[in-house]
Amino acid sequence: MIDLLAKIFAASNPLWYYYPLAIVVGIVYKTTQYDTPRDIAWGVLHFFVSVTGFMILLAIALYGLSEWL
Amino acid sequence: MSQKVVHRKSWVAAVVLAMALPGLGHWYLNRRVKAAVFFVCVVGLFVAGWGLGQWRIVNNGDLLFYAQVLAGPLAYAADHISDGMVARSGPPNHVGVAFEMGVLYTLVAGLLNLLVILDSYMVANNIERPTTRKGDQA
Predict the structure, then answer these.
(1) Which domain holds residue A34?
(2) Inside any domain, residue B22
């Protein structure tokens, strides 16, 4: 089952491995921090966007650095 | 963090239960929904990672096991089954991204359970986290 899902999604784009990991980390972390489902949902969204955005910025910076060197 | 006061609940029992099974400490502290969320997330992530690693990536003796075992006795069961898989089908086939992500998933699951264990301690002792938003309801 897990192998099949991995083949369907992640074979085309390995980033599919990243999404569930980031979401689960966000859910657990924000569930320890907040109590209401609304706060948790917004917290998870904020966490996911922040981490993903930072990784994209880092990727762009590293790509630019590799082109420049 | 919750404003809910927890009466007559031992933090030792909460921590031991949280170590025994992800979420069980919160269940003991009457945080049933949170307990279910923690159980599904931690165990789900661990099993998904274990599966991605061809059911052979949990090995008592590896340095990685110190992080994986934070997910609780589940890691020992996975180790036992992994040993059986290796005996039957040979060592894991290092096939790249899926295998590496499987290892990462199990490690993160263990570390997340450490966070859950610490949270059960804080809830049992009614300790508020400094990052809690003002106005959060129990």
Answers:
(1) 15-68
(2) yes
Which candidate, B129, B10, B22, B59, places its Cα nearest to that of A34? B129
Distance in angstroms (rounded) separating the CA atoms of residues B73 and A44: 28
Total tally of structural domains belonging to chain A: 1
User: How many domains is chain B built from?
Assistant: 1
Nearest neighbour of A31 by CB, restricted to B34, B105, B138: B34
CB contact set of A61 (below 8 Å; sequence gap of 6+): none
Task: Flag whether residue A25 sits within 8 Å of chain B, measured between CB atoms.
Answer: yes
| Tokens at B40, concatenated | 């599904």
Query: B130 lies in a domain?
Result: no
Q: Please give the DSSP secondary-structure letter assigned to residue B96.
A: S
Report the gap between the CA of B35 and the closest CA in chain A (Å). 10
In tens digits, chain B (138 residues) has pLDDT values of 555 555 678 999 999 999 999 999 999 999 999 999 999 999 999 999 999 888 888 888 888 899 999 998 999 999 999 888 888 888 776 667 888 899 999 999 999 999 999 999 999 988 877 655 554 544
Whole-model pTM? 0.84
- Expressed as residue numbers, the domain containing B49 is 11-124
- Chain B CA closest to residue A10: B98
Q: Which positions in chain B have a beta carbon within 8 angstroms of at least one beta carbon in chain A? A: 1-4, 34, 37-38, 41-42, 44-45, 47-48, 51-52, 97-98, 101, 104-105, 108, 112, 115-116, 119, 129, 131-133, 136-138
- The C-alpha R_g of chain B, in whole angstroms, comes to 17
